[in-house]
Amino acid sequence: MIPLSQTSILTAGCVGRIWYPVGEVAVSLGGVQSVRWRKPRWVPTAKSRLFTIPKRPVVPEEEAREIQRLYNNYRNNLRAVRRHLREEYLRTSATSEVALQQAAEEEAEHQRLMEYNRLENERIAALREIRIKKELEDDLARVAASKQKLAEQAAINQETALRIITETQELVKTFIKREDLEKAIEHAIANPVDYNSAIDQEGYIYRGRNTKVQDIPEEDREQLARASQ
To answer: 131 or 36: whose pLDDT is higher?
Structure first.
């Protein structure tokens, strides 16, 4: 016997009681949840249905032919779709002819680009060699010009130094020696030098504080050099 348990169901505020042969299985009927009871696996077939043979449905001949026709159409269509998908897969797969041809084209394109890259590298290397050679020549020319300029400047400096030495030697000859100091003092006292001078409108220079114009003949007068001269 199947044990029965009493279950209360709350429906729209009303409580109803039904009998379900649910055994020991707990059933939760909250809200609108519905539970369909199924017979457990270990329960055998009911005695009332133990030797019952279900009646085979009778299908009319026309309906059977129509069903067979629809099934044949379905089978042919599905077979065509499968064949189409298989051919498409073989055509686009990694081992297909199209894929192999595409891979060969990509490899050829890669080799062409590699060759172009090699030629471009050679061209750039040749241009680089020409540029480096020109830069080296420019550097050598600049160094030579710098050396020449330094040599010319050294020669000018040497000439200047020799000129200064010569002038200094000539100036040293005018120095008063210690033993001639008294004579030089007596000569300076006896021959005073007046550094005062005057210039008239014609540009004649009259040296000395007490020099008068009428005392110097016109042919002996010293005239200031003009700027145009």
So the answer is: 131
